[in-house]
Design goal:
about 400 residues, 5-stranded mixed sheet, about 20% strand
Length: about 400
């Protein structure tokens, strides 16, 4: 994986500009009392949450940077009990898990942090910026059901677990006879509820990207290509401070994938334009006609379900002359009962962040003009995150072992 990303990183690297050599760059780390350092010899600290998926994603970025000669080590940032209401107000009310990483970054405890881009609030945090969006993983959702069943094969009245109102709304439109259960937990915990020895559900729906990164595509019984993913699903955001040193910025530029970045920014800007909360049933997906941005060069660009009937695939992008210059963006706002929807589409230029966000603004405006705010509560948030009923047996709440998830999953 690191070799593939490093290969992409070198290919995606911009032409070198005339700038002072990195070894001459120095700075003082403020607020944590660290001594001045030489940028060419410094080991950068990548802050991560402690869950398996968070550490896996962070290690992917660290490996890619290490391949490029930039020394990076992981440091786990604890989330239990160390984020106060006052701290959250600094970040505009971010969920506790993203907040812990961002506060550590702002306070100088780490130099960069890796987030699942779909889980970050759209509001910009002063002092922070997105340093890179690496090649996007498969963007679609995946059904993980008992007995290898697909969505169409689930019996009427089957129970399907997911923590996403967006998934529920779209699945209800397809299968109104199913029962949907709101669940929490990490990937392993959720899978066990449908495929473990003590399974209490018939199926669960998870992001295919997380399953692929953890090597659990064997659990997938169907890739739900008929369900639009969450904006930026499958993309990672590497966040840095505004005062990040030149060496780190240059390395991140080499692992940044322009098409993945443009897609993620445009999709997220739709949420910003709609002023949508993390529980609003909004799906969005940007791709080209010939290349699914969601999977290029990711695990050989293919993930098979265990019955062989579903797959995620992309054409490789090893030829820089064939990099996409425009993406096609589709989006959907759907009522929570799945009976009404508003759709819109548009073109997303690949190049500047400003062009991508402008494209997202235009599509978001079109959704509002068609009545998106009238068919669903766009400001919906997940206020029931603390309820123990949402968690698997033995998990008491969001700070218990096995419960390290974002409030917007």
């Amino acid at each position: 994986m690191a070799e593939k990303w490093a290969k992409n990183a070198v290919r995606n690297a911009p032409k070198k500009a005339s700038e002072p050599p990195a070894e001459n760059a120095t700075r003082n780390v403020t607020q944590n009392g660290a001594a001045a350092y030489s940028a060419s010899h410094r080991e950068f600290v990548l802050g991560t949450r402690g869950s398996e998926l968070a550490r896996t994603q962070s290690q992917m970025v660290a490996d890619a940077l290490n391949e490029l000669g930039v020394r990076v080590r992981l440091q786990t940032i604890r989330t239990e009990g160390d984020v106060t209401a006052g701290s959250l107000s600094r970040l505009g009310g971010v969920g506790v898990f993203a907040a812990a990483l961002r506060l550590a970054l702002l306070d100088g405890q780490c130099d960069l942090a890796v987030h699942s881009f779909k889980d970050l609030p759209t509001k910009v945090v002063p002092g922070l910026e997105i340093g890179a969006v690496p090649t996007r993983a498969p963007a679609f959702d995946a059904l993980c059901a008992r007995y290898g069943l697909t969505l169409e094969e689930l019996p009427s009245g089957a129970t399907v677990g997911t923590g996403s109102p967006r998934r529920v709304a779209q699945l209800r439109a397809l299968r109104p006879d199913l029962n949907f259960v709101d669940i929490r937990g990490n990937v392993g915990t959720r899978l066990a509820r449908a495929q473990g020895p003590d399974a209490d559900l018939d199926a669960v729906v998870l992001a295919a990207a997380g399953l692929a990164r953890l090597g659990r595509t064997d659990a997938i019984t169907q890739v739900l290509t008929q369900v639009l993913p969450a904006p930026a699903q499958g993309a990672l955001a590497v966040e840095i401070r505004n005062d990040a040193p030149t060496q780190l910025r240059a390395a991140l530029a080499r692992i940044n994938h322009p098409a993945s970045r443009a897609a993620a920014l445009a999709e997220r800007q739709i949420l910003a334009q709609l002023r949508a909360g993390c529980a609003a049933p909004v799906g969005a997906y940007a791709r080209t006609d010939w290349h699914a941005v969601c999977g290029a060069d990711f695990e050989d660009a293919t993930a098979l379900s265990r019955d062989g009937r579903s797959h995620l695939s992309c054409e490789p992008t090893d030829d820089p002359e064939n990099e996409p210059t425009t993406l096609r963006l589709r989006t959907r706002v759907i009522s929570v009962d799945g009976t009404r929807e508003v759709t819109a589409s548009g073109a997303v230029p690949v190049g500047s962040d400003e062009d991508a966000t402008a494209a997202g603004d235009a599509v978001g405006t079109a959704l509002l003009a068609q009545g998106a705010a009238q068919i669903t509560d766009l400001a919906a948030t997940k206020n029931a995150h603390e309820r123990t009923a949402l968690w698997a047996p033995g998990i008491a709440g969001p700070t218990a072992p096995g419960a390290d998830v974002s409030a917007c999953k």
